[in-house]
Amino acid sequence: MNLVLWFALLGAFPGKDPVVLRLAGPSSAVGGIGAWTRRVAEAWARQQGIQLEYIDTPAKSDERLALFQQYWAARSPDIDVYTIDVIWPALAAPHALDLTPYVDTADLRDFFPVYLQNNRVEGKLVALPFYADAGLLYYRRDLLQAYGYDHPPRTWSELEAMAERVQKGERARGDRDFWGFVWQGQRYEGLTCNALEWVASHGGGTFVDTGGRVTLENPQVVKALARARRWVGWISPPGVTAYIEEDARNLFQNGHVLFMRNWPYAYALLSSSGSPVRGKFAVAVLPRSAEPGGRHAATLGGWQLMVSRYSRHPEQAVALVRYLTSAALQKQRAREMSLLPTRRSVYEDPEVQRMHPWWTVARKVLTSAVARPSSVTGRRYNRVSQAIYDAVHRVLTGEWTAEQAVRQMAVRIRKALRHRR
Ligand code: GLC
């Protein structure tokens, strides 16, 4: 058939063009999350007679945001559905389709209220919760037992004492590269998550309080940061200041680490067949400071699905988001991964409970998790967080003292909050 005839025929049946939906999903570089999302989204699309294109994204939250902001600035219809971090709803809101008319109020009640509140910006439902996240302490149960400890550390001092002793013992037994504690210390959003946990667990607040006041100039913040600085090179490898989550997980998974701070996704990977630590580890709440005012603090994380306001196929895009956040799919996910569900009903399912007995701990941690100050700082959160992770990173590498960092952070955060855009 000649080309002219082809085009004439296509023009005669414009409705026959297949719908192409583009989903910017979780990164394929982070422990199977991207690959899983792509697989289930493609399977759904095939059933619907839709074509799905999966847009892979960088592993680091900040880099994903920078990428998405380019599409948003251009009001681009090239991405229909975005996976957004729990800290972005204010930034994303102007570019989001309001999901309120598309969702059933009774069904919405199944989601954790903290996420729904978080995802509502000036009355607009910006996104639906895809998976929940909160910081956890992973520990080697076998090693703690071998060294005579019958419980994971409850305070940071306990963690330090256990880490020092086991590290020394394991190195003496020949594992020269053994370390006590790994976490993500690179200069990026992941470090803000850790810094919040250190500070809040010392009773030092949340940098900016819910009323928008800058509260970080207090001695507990200095103590928390100075403590983390001491870990580097002592119980944590010097390279920890260049780690993201996956670096910490790889080290822990290879069996040369006692404690790790990480998110729930790591659990399934650590338990997979062939993992050297399979069956040897457990999770607990992160330690607190032993001083009065100390509390267990986990940073609230999590990813949400948003439909672009510039999408050419909003109906189909909403259907995809509803499918990806449905109870049935979250239950299916529970069979294959350890990402935490965002719906309460999924935790109550007896089959799910049998698969993940540790979700009892995870759910408790999640429901008492500490939010980063993103709701109160809104579109300026990004700059607030940059001020935090820049300064904290300089403390960890020894460039600034904790006192200097606190002063610098306070100046930068006040400035960021003054400039209303
Ligand atoms: C996890 C959390 C997210 C956080 C990120 C930082 O993906 O879910 O909220 O911003 O880690 O690395």
Tell me what the CATH architecture of the largest domain is.
Answer: 3-Layer(aba) Sandwich
Which distinct ligands sit in these coordinates?
alpha-D-glucopyranose
Percent range of helical residues: 40-55%
Segments where pLDDT lies below 50 for 5+ residues?
A: 8-13
For the record, the CATH class of the largest domain is: Alpha Beta
Distance from N terminus to C terminus (CA atoms, Å) equals: 57 Å
Task: Indicate the multimeric state.
Answer: single chain
Biggest sheet layout: 5 strands, mixed
The general outline is: globular
The CATH topology name of the largest domain reads: D-Maltodextrin-Binding Protein, domain 2
- Relevant CATH superfamily of the largest domain: Periplasmic binding protein-like II
Number of helices: 20
Number of strands: 11
Question: Which strand order do you get reading across the main beta sheet?
Answer: 2-1-3-11-6
Radius of gyration: 23 Å
Q: Structural class given helices, strands, pairing?
A: alpha/beta
